[in-house]
Amino acid sequence: MAQSAALLTRIVASSICATVQAGKIIRDVLSKGGLNIVEKGKNDLQTEADRCAQRCIVASLSRQFPNITIIGEEEPSSCEVPSEWIVTEADQDVLQLKLPNHLEDINPKDVCVWVDPLDGTAEYTQGLVEHVTVLVGVAIGKTAIGGVIHQPYYKNNESDAYGRTLWGIDGVGFGGFAPKPPPEEKRIITTTRSHSDGIVQSAIKSLDPDEVARVGGAGHKVILLLEGKAHAYVFASGGCKRWDTCAPEAVLHAIGGVLTDLHGERYSYNPETTRANTRGVLATAPGQSHQWYLSRIPDEVKQKLQ
User: Fold this and answer.
1) Which position among 9, 19, 47, 121 bears the catalytic label?
2) Are 118 and 106 in contact (CB under 8 A)?
């Protein structure tokens, strides 16, 4: 790898290749049929694919970047990681990126990488594989700066290959997708498919949507914003975690969108922070007034998400 490249670009470039390998592992586990599902809590499943994909990503990144903090959704494993899971390659295009001065020379101790090895596990177990993403977010200090979103089951029309990797570095650039604006003549809101309740419904209703897209996975929902298929992503619940939003937030901000809690504050992604996004999630596509959406969310919804 080009050691002359800045630490941030090297981490993002390596994460791109690690998520591709994790996506291959996820497809392999499903095709063999041995999901070995564990119920961690209500509506919170874990499969063999989650565990293996995380071991692949964490082992690959920690070997290359031993001084950064890496936090994964799944419990750390002491099992030996197969050598073929260890990724040493890095995306060459990202390595060539020129960074602004404040990102050029960062201390590894200020970097925290948040890993969701399989976002959309419930959908994965139900065969709704197009909802599945692999997420690696790179925070510097408290702020989500770099993000990688890999779709293991994205079908490339020009070849028989599966998989697509979207990435972004806030203030620097993005790749793997072509941003599109959402339609002007209607408002489409995306929200949870499996964690709905009265508060979630109240928040959605307040935005007077023409359509509601109920899909799995925070990564998948933000992809709808990136590609102009929804105007906003609203989740009035404390049900998602920092590893769900770090990567999507960075990619969305890289193209001019916004992701905050329902009070309009950005989440903190330093290692000491709480894991749960207790104040809900509001994300808006580029060109949308984030403030307008915030102002429409009822106060009683916000009060329940303190």
Assistant:
1) 121
2) no
Count of domains for the chain: 2
Residues 151 and 31 in one domain: yes
- Phi, psi values for residue 166, rounded to 5°: -105, 140
Does the active-site annotation cover 121? yes
CA distance 94 to 169: 10
Q: How far is CA 154 from the centre of its chain?
A: 16
pLDDT tens-place string over residues 131-152: 999 999 999 999 999 999 999 9
Inter-axis angle of helices 218-226 and 242-254, nearest 10: 10
197 appears as a binding residue in the annotation? no
Q: For residues 72 and 70, what is the distance between their CA atoms, to the nearest angstrom?
A: 7
CA distance linking residue 112 with residue 155, whole number of Å: 31
Same domain, 73 and 218: no
* Same domain, residue pair 232 and 296: yes
Residue 207 is labelled as binding a ligand: no
In this predicted structure, the answer to whether residue 260 has a pLDDT above a threshold of 80 is yes
Q: Please, are residues 156 and 258 in contact by the beta-carbon 8 Å criterion?
A: no
